[in-house]
Write a structure and sequence with these properties.
By secondary structure, this protein is an alpha/beta fold. The protein folds into 2 domains: 97 residues, 3-Layer(aba) Sandwich (Rossmann fold), CATH 3.40.50.20; 112 residues, 3 Solenoid (UDP N-Acetylglucosamine Acyltransferase, domain 1), CATH 2.160.10.10. α2 links the parallel β1 and β2. The protein is globular. It starts with a helix and ends in an 8-residue tail after the last helix. The site of coenzyme A has 13 residues, from β22.
Length: 231
């Protein structure tokens, strides 16, 4: 094989990560991807393709971007769980390889499974036999203990802690610094406020906050000091 053909093939196989979303979260994912030392090139895509790149990495297109190479991988950097799910499905349906990113300074226990599109940030700990679904964010310095099952497109925000044997439904967001007690079940589409402590199962989708976590009451009931239902 000629040197020219070899160089061309090397170029074609260059591993490139495309990060969809020029947000602050995208910035942290860029940093994580660099630390993994897996990609020769990192570029951004965004719904606003006229915007700017992030941290010196170029913005090369939007959702309609079609110039994919065989060795490209894509990760969706959108904090909103529902939107992240839709965008990941859009690119997966186009045949894009969806990346799974794990920071070298995180700790992953034995028999842990991570779905495609999941990111595990610096300082996060996931303990033995936990299953994390597709498109989840296990954010900086958070932990998910042993034997948990997280559905798809969940977000365990910075510094949140999920104790052992917890089940979390799809699209659930556990806010910064929140704690979920052991063997709790949280249904899909729940939002746990920052700093909340969940000590009872959550069976209805909605927003829960405080210690212990309670359903966020509608405006009228809060203003009259009405009783709120416990999740
Ligand atoms: C719970 C949360 C979703 C509520 O947001 P919201 O619906 O916009 O609520 P508001 O900001 O209008 O606040 C409504 C009331 O709840 C209180 N409140 C808001 N968040 C709260 C929380 N986490 N814990 C306790 N009380 C909270 C507010 O003080 C306010 O009380 P008031 O009516 O007596 O003044 C939001 O505050 C939150 O915690 N989001 C998570 C953010 C996060 O973790 N980000 C992580 C990024 S990695």
């Amino acid at each position: 094989m000629s040197a020219g053909v070899c160089a061309e093939m090397g170029q074609m196989m260059k591993r490139r990560l495309l990060i969809f979303g020029c947000s602050g979260h995208g910035k942290v994912i860029w940093d994580l991807a660099r630390k993994m030392k897996r990609y020769e090139e990192i570029c951004f895509l965004d719904d606003n393709p006229q915007g700017r790149g992030v941290m010196g990495a170029p913005l090369i297109g939007g959702r309609e971007f079609a110039d994919f190479k065989a060795a490209d991988e894509l990760i969706v950097a959108i904090g909103n769980c529902g939107i992240r799910g839709k965008v990941q499905k859009y690119f997966a349906d186009k045949g894009m390889k969806i990346a799974t990113l794990v920071h070298p300074n995180s700790t992953i226990g034995a028999h842990v499974t991570l779905g495609r599109g999941t990111v595990v940030m610096a300082g996060a700990v996931i303990n033995s036999e936990t299953q994390i679904g597709e498109g989840c964010i296990i954010n900086t310095a958070s932990s998910v203990d042993h034997d948990c099952v997280l559905g798809t497109f969940c977000h365990v925000a910075v510094g949140a802690h999920v104790a052992g044997g917890v089940h979390v439904g799809d699209f659930t967001w556990i806010g910064a610094g929140a704690v979920v007690s052991n063997h709790i079940s949280i249904c899909a589409d729940s939002l746990i406020g920052a700093g909340a402590v969940v000590v009872r199962d959550i069976e209805k989708p909605g927003t829960y906050m405080g210690v212990p976590a309670r359903s966020k009451a509608p405006e009228s009931r809060r203003k009259t000091g009405g009783k709120v239902s416990v999740g």
